Amino acid sequence: MGGRTEPAGEGERLGAGRGLLLWCLFFAMAFGLGYPTLNRYDTRKMGTDWDEYYRMVDHQGPAIDFPFSGRVLVPAIARPFYLLAQGRSGTWNPVMFGLLVSNCIFCASAAFFLLLIGLRVLGDMPLALLGCTLYLLNFVVSNLWLAGMVDSSEGCLMLALMWCLFAGRWWMLPLIGIAGGLAKQSFLPFSVVFATAWWLVAERPNKRYWKLGWVAALGCACAATMALMARAAAGHTQSLWAMAEWWNIRRGYWGSFLHVLREQQLWYAFVWLLPLGVWRLNRLPKAWVTASIAAGVCALGLGVFASMGGTVNRPLFNVMGPILSVSVALLLGDGAQLRRS
Q: pLDDT tens, 106-160?
């Protein structure tokens, strides 16, 4: 599996001004996709998750229980925007406005990281932008990320991790781990599996054992942050195993696996992304492909363990959505590439 790994000329010419303009464009696109949450429906009626994150922003109601109490990154950023909008937002729900702005920040940042990766891998601005557009238009983004959930932070940090690995900035992994520990607990296994798989298949000149130290630091930083957040919320230290047991509903693994595959919500996100995305994976860097598949298997396995059903589409998209979106863009742009060549 080939693919460009050195910085592309287009990426070098992006520039700060152009990059800021594109980030703002991604933010505006995300805000438009998430606008219905402001006054067209109440997300609190959609399930426990939405209600917990809502209360984390307005600080009303009983204390937030684990695991929601540790997922503070999106609500913490949403809080100032909620306070700013309170009494000034007209028909808009101020809490949902805060959550939407916070999620749009992460969505725009995720798309920007994907743009940088696309430029590095494809060396073509239109194709890279097409990949970002396909990514933002996925079912998961508009219906889950931008609907008052916190998965946008995990998706953004996974893309930040990917960009660091592409750029060779392994020293940044612990910093991403700290942010990931504040975002969502599942970031720990996904990020460690992804980075480890990347290192394992790297070409020998780039396969330095000291990089595994940064991967270990990533896991330790994320785990320590999660432990501190759990202690702050519950007043006592919880082991990682005790945290994992919260999701174990002790259902038969095979039956849970079949249940996941039968859930239509899973396929809303992947019904076109997966069959179109696999065709050009052989054109993309081997390390990225292998790491994405490994993290995807991890996400699916943990989703079956927790019997998440169709909602496993969220973690699966967070780890595999970027490479599949770029692959679909490459598939759709093949004809344009031939005409330009």
A: 999 999 999 999 999 999 999 999 999 999 999 999 999 999 899 999 999 999 9
- SS3 for 138-202 is CHHHHHHHCCCCCHHHHHHHHHHHHHHHHHCCHHHHHHHHHHHHHHCCCHHHHHHHHHHHHHHHC
Q: Which amino acid is at 20?
A: L
Structural domain contains residue 53: yes
Cα–Cα distance, 21 to 39 (Å, whole number): 28
CA distance 331 to 287: 20
Which sign does the torsion angle of CA 142, 143, 147, 150 carry? negative
In a domain, 2, yes or no: no
Question: Within a domain: residue 3?
Answer: no
pLDDT, tens only, 190-239: 999 999 999 999 877 778 889 999 999 999 999 999 989 888 776 666 66
DSSP string, 304-333: HHTT-GGGGHHHHHHHHHHHHHHHHHHHHT
Range of the domain at 123: 9-340
Cβ-based neighbours of 294, under 8 Å, separated by 6 or more = 193, 194, 196, 197
What pTM did the predictor assign?
A: 0.90
Give which of 156, 164, 143, 165 is closest to 187, Cα–Cα: 156
Cα-based distances in Å from 196 to 17, 20, 81, 215, 334: 35, 32, 37, 7, 32
Whole-number CA gyration radius for the chain: 20
Tokens of residue 70, six digits: 């540790």
Collapse the DSSP code of 101 into the 3-class scheme (helix H, G, I; strand E, B; otherwise coil) and give the result: helix
In 3D space, the residue among 130, 138, 139, 136 whose CA is nearest the CA of residue 111 turns out to be 136
